[in-house]
Amino acid sequence: MGAPAEEQAGIPFTEEVMADELPVNCQTPAVAEYDGTTDPQEHLTRFENAALLHRYTDGIKCRVFFTTFSWATQQWFNQSPPVVIGSFREFRSLFLYQFASSRKHRKTKLSLFSIRQNEENH
Question: Which top-level group of life is the source organism from (predicted)?
Answer without folding.
Answer: Eukaryota
